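Q: Could you fold this chain for me?
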Amino acid sequence: MNRTYGIAGVTAVVLATVLVGALGLRVSRTTSDFYVASRTVAPRLNACAVSGEYLSAASFLGVAGLVLAQGVDMLWFPIGYTAGFLLLLAFVAAPLRRSGAYTLPDFAEARLESRAVRRIAGGLVVGIGWLYLLPQLRGAGLTLRLLTGVPGWVGGLIVAAVVTVAVAAGGMRSITFVQAFQYWLKLTALLVPVAFLLLAWRADHAPAPSWEDRPVFHRPTEVRLDRPVTLTAHAPVRVTVSGSVDGRTVHGGSVTLAEGGHRIGADTVLRFPAGARVPLPDRASGRTAQSSWARPLSADREQHSLYATYGLILATFLGTMGLPHVVVRFYTNPDGRAARRTTVIVLGLLGAFYLLVPLYGMLGRLYAPDLLLTGDTDAAVLVLPQRLIGGVAGDLLGALVAGGACAAFLSTASGLTLSVAGVLAQDVLPTRGVRHFRFAALPAIAVPTAAGAVVSDLPVADAVGLAFAVSASSFCPLLVLGIWWRGLTPPGAIAGLLLGGGSALTAVTVTIAGGARSGWLHTLLAWPAVWSVPVGFAAMVLTSLATRDRVPPGTTATMARLHLPEPTPVHP
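A: Sure. Below is the predicted structure, expressed as structure tokens.
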């Protein structure tokens, strides 16, 4: 990708974000403006903002990278991301808006009349927000590294600074317009290039991707490995090497990589001929090994493919309703009816976007299999315009894609920072108000920025999947039972949040830290929703039944407010 064009595209998006955020300072004055835009956002505008916020770096970059690497079973990610809004529509959207809350901890306290439940809910909001921010910052680092060559942490730092300015300047009111604009930018950034990419693929006689375990180099390809890696060849491959192979230094000579493992040194360049099968990194040196690429249940997941798939489905289907940065947007609608309309429109907007992402994964399998060697599979969307089209047209399309990627991590990072800052301002800082909200934006983004410098090798969509698992195990039970079961008690809610959400958060923390790398233990920790969601529901129900005398006295009035529709205004 031409760096000049790419930098220009990213800079334009950043300037637009800062400009709209700064203009928000003129219209955001009250606490209600900053938290929920004074509850005046119309359904269509709010749906665009929800979609812009929800379609993160995991959607824009990560899903295509996972399809490239692991195949069609990764399509469960976009299916789950979208289908989660059906459950949100059916069970949560309208009652949550009628609750009159500003944040999820607000709802928890209003429904259960307990400060303890509020504090635990606030801690989980912050934990989920920070966990979700990690892949956004990684996506930013990856994009800017490809564009400029700077270290990945620099991209994360730049995004953190821009997001802090945008959130602190205008709060929810200005972020709404920013995110709505960014949805259409992201859709355009995928739709326009993919039309040209498919034309180029058609002109190349429409080759089909390899349906076997190992992809092939469709064209002669040069791969530069910046760090040492162990590659496993399943068949002899003849390559031209400039660097170190199996401890032997070669200067532009031809080497045959026999079947088996080979140690490639840092700063080594490998040139593969067309038709050569791609030797892949082993599991110890990367996360890109794969098998059964064309099957919906991949045997790569430690041979527990069915369990892992159910874990992914449960996390994404149930986790959406508890994502703090998504839920807070429904508080901005005028009433519950508008919240439902917003959700219906979001389903259409997300569906249009996710139809495009798998095409990039398929084309990446054909024209960018070298990303499997380097571990940069999340970069498939960014490199394809230059690979298939090239020239000035490829540079311009690449700049558009880079701008869309920038919008992806900026919009989601803004929403997450907004939701975390709201909790910090209300429940951590000594007093409330706009000034403390602005101050809270700094630690809301600073902590994951610092953590992102340490955790740098987790695929973007995988990291987001872990955040969904924590959300599904904590806030899904709280919202469903809190809205639809009047028997929920504060001790029951506390037990469910701690056992369900706490266990899922512990599991994903161990996974990110690399505590378990193989076997059933790894599978249980990496996809915890199968057991942690039932634990959360069971703990809430059983503890509430054991503490029936602790049902809050205002439960009847609260349930009526959640479920009775607002009166239709009468206009003279």
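A (continued): The first strand starts at residue 221 and ends at 225.
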